[in-house]
Amino acid sequence: MVKKNACVFISGKGTNLKNLIDKSRDSSFPIKIKLVISNNINALGIKIARKNSITYKIINTKLRNYETNLINILKFNKISLICLAGYMKILPKRLIRKFENKVINIHPSLLPKFKGLNTYSKIIKRREVKTGCSVHFVNEKLDDGKIIIQKSFFINQNYDENYLKNRTQKLEYLAYPEAIISLFRSKKFKKKT
Ligand code: GRF
């Protein structure tokens, strides 16, 4: 199988990045992580990229040419899929248009519920009985694009943010690879890559 090049965008710990790198070692997994982009020079995920000999770039979103540079880097590396994994910046509209239907994100809630930041505290405040994670296409609105896959669990009465995060992230490590596999199985997506 010829793997397609993927780029993972991170801002923090990078546990989803690590999971995708591990999965991509499997010859039947459709992508190779070719590039890691971070807007945060201190992101722990950068160490993961380095340890796995994956090219990484730190971007400064305040620079005037950053959008053009970023698009050029992605094109130069022949990136077919962009996976956002804890990337805490809004992507430039131009990039989303250029990579239409090729940018996906993982979010720690059952979208369309609880878009945006502080998801776990919102879930607790609302006394939800069920939660989970969503992998979705990225469009120009926040946490809004078409959902590719969701995984859920029922919440116990005695829970805190840590508990929610642990359980949700365990599901994320299953959901993100599954979503990528299902994308590459879809004829419509394959045609465009
Ligand atoms: C994930 O839980 C994801 O849902 C959210 O950001 C978190 C990133 O975690 N978008 P990590 O950096 O992959 O550990």
Describe the structure.
- Helix 4 (93-98) links the parallel strand 4 and strand 5.
- This protein has a seven-stranded mixed β-sheet with strand order 3-2-1-4-5-6-7, with helices on both faces.
- The chain contains seven helices and seven strands; from the N terminus they run E-H-E-H-E-H-E-H-E-H-E-E-H-H.
- The chain is globular, with a radius of gyration of 16 Å.
- Helices cover 37% and strands 24% of the residues.
- With 193 residues, the chain is of the alpha/beta class.
- Helix 1 (15-24) runs parallel beside helix 6 (161-185).
- 5-O-phosphono-beta-D-ribofuranosylamine is lined by residues 10, 12-16, 45, 85-86, 106-108, 133, 169, 172.
- Residues 10, 12-16, 45, 85-86, 106-108, 133, 169, 172 line the site of 5-O-phosphono-beta-D-ribofuranosylamine.
Beta-strand residue fraction: 15-25%
| Helix and strand element order | EHEHEHEHEHEEHH
Rg, rounded, reads: 16 Å
- List the strand order in the largest sheet: 3-2-1-4-5-6-7
Distance between the termini: 15 Å
Which structural class do the helices and strands define? alpha/beta
Number of strands: 7
The average pLDDT score comes to: 96
Shape: globular
